[in-house]
């Protein structure tokens, strides 16, 4: 029996990396070119952040719906049938920015950060790389975002930075507002979250809803590729892109997203899996069970 295809996602740009120093696209034309390179290499899903389009401000994010629409339309024109996966992450309880972009873009999928994380990193000398921050995602905020994503006709992809957040996704489903088969993204390599260690995967998978699709997002240098290989072997979906790494399995720096997706497609094929076509990805990711809330169980005695 042939192995199932692997859905390849390319995370095209990220949120704050400086385009003056790194090969990250900013403008609609740049995003479309990078998306096309990834699409031609086997990516069927494009994960997008939106950058400030003012000259000299491309290192900053924006929630301008016009900019978001221009970027996503350029990607769709360049990559027929590809699925858009839109970021929604914000600090604080003002969701107006991502909700306005969600309504304008109407993506097929949208990231839904599933729990709170102390977002930390130290430099070699022990100093903080940035001021310690809390990426706040309390339950009421997660539910508001999940509800909005589903109302837009998109499938939420639950971003899980640690084991407790992963287990929370199951509780959201049991509570009746997350989908019956919630797409689950295991985010590994954030210094204060789960490490980029392939040995963790077999311990984590029992906590993914049976039958739900899962993938790994792995942040780091060339060490990320061992996790990608194990993910492919275990039947997970795969993601790379300059949001996550600039490094190829050899340790060489990539020229852009196309190089990274080429390498990821090779990882899938080494595990006996071909990259999924856009049609295959659409059928798997947009099942009714991923687009509608699970029914909460009836209370005893009711």
Q: Can you tag this structure with a few keywords?
A:
two-stranded antiparallel ribbon, 15% strand, TIM Barrel, single chain, 10 strands, 302 residues, 8-stranded parallel barrel, 10 helices, alpha/beta
Account of the protein in words:
It contains 10 helices and 10 strands. Strands 1-2-3-4-7-8-9-10 form an 8-stranded parallel barrel, surrounded by 7 helices. It has a two-stranded antiparallel ribbon with strand order 5-6. It has helices at 28-41, 65-78, 96-105, 139-151, 163-175, 201-204, 224-234, 257-270, 278-285, 288-291; strands at 8-11, 45-48, 83-86, 109-113, 117-119, 133-135, 155-160, 183-188, 214-218, 237-240. It is globular. The protein has 302 residues and is of the alpha/beta class. It has a single domain (8-291), classed as Aldolase class I (TIM Barrel, Alpha-Beta Barrel).
CATH domain class name: Alpha Beta
Shape: globular
Task: Please tell me how large the radius of gyration is.
Answer: 18 Å
What portion of residues is helical? 25-40%
- In DSSP terms (H or I, runs of 4 or more residues), the helix count works out at 10
> Alpha-carbon distance between the termini?
46 Å
CATH A-level architecture: Alpha-Beta Barrel
- Element-by-element helix/strand order: EHEHEHEEEHEHEHEHEHHH
CATH superfamily: Aldolase class I
Broad structural category: alpha/beta
Whole-number count of domains = 1
Quaternary organization? single chain
Poorly predicted runs are none
Query: How many strand segments?
Result: 10
Task: Provide the spatial order of strands within the biggest beta sheet.
Answer: 1-2-3-4-7-8-9-10
């Amino acid at each position: 029996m042939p192995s199932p295809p692997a859905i390849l996602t390319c995370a095209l740009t990220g949120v704050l990396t400086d385009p003056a120093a790194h090969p990250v696209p900013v403008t609609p034309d740049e995003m479309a070119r990078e998306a096309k390179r990834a699409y031609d290499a086997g990516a069927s899903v494009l994960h997008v952040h939106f950058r400030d389009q003012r000259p000299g401000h491309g290192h900053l994010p924006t929630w301008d719906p016009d900019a978001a629409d221009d970027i996503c339309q350029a990607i769709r024109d360049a990559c027929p049938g590809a699925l858009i996966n839109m970021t929604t992450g914000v600090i604080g309880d003002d969701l107006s920015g991502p909700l306005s972009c969600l309504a304008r873009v109407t993506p097929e999928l949208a990231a839904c950060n599933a729990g709170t994380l102390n977002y930390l990193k130290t430099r070699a000398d022990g100093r903080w790389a940035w001021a310690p921050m809390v990426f706040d995602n309390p339950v009421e905020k997660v539910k508001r975002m999940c509800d909005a994503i589903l109302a837009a006709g998109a499938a939420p992809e639950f971003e899980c930075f640690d084991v407790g957040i992963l287990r929370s996704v199951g509780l959201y489903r049991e509570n009746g507002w997350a989908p019956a088969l919630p797409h689950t993204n295991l985010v590994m390599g954030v210094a204060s979250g789960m490490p980029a260690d392939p040995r963790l995967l077999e311990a984590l998978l029992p906590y993914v809803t049976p039958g739900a699709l899962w993938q790994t997002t792995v942040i780091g240098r060339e060490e990320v590729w061992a996790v990608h290989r194990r993910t492919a072997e275990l039947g997970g979906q795969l993601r790379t892109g300059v949001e996550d790494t600039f490094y190829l399995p050899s340790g060489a720096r990539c020229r852009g997203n196309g190089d990274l997706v080429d390498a990821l497609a090779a990882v899938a094929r080494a595990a006996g899996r071909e990259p999924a076509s856009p049609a295959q990805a659409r059928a798997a990711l947009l099942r009714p069970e991923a687009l509608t809330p699970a029914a909460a169980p009836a209370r005893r005695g009711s």
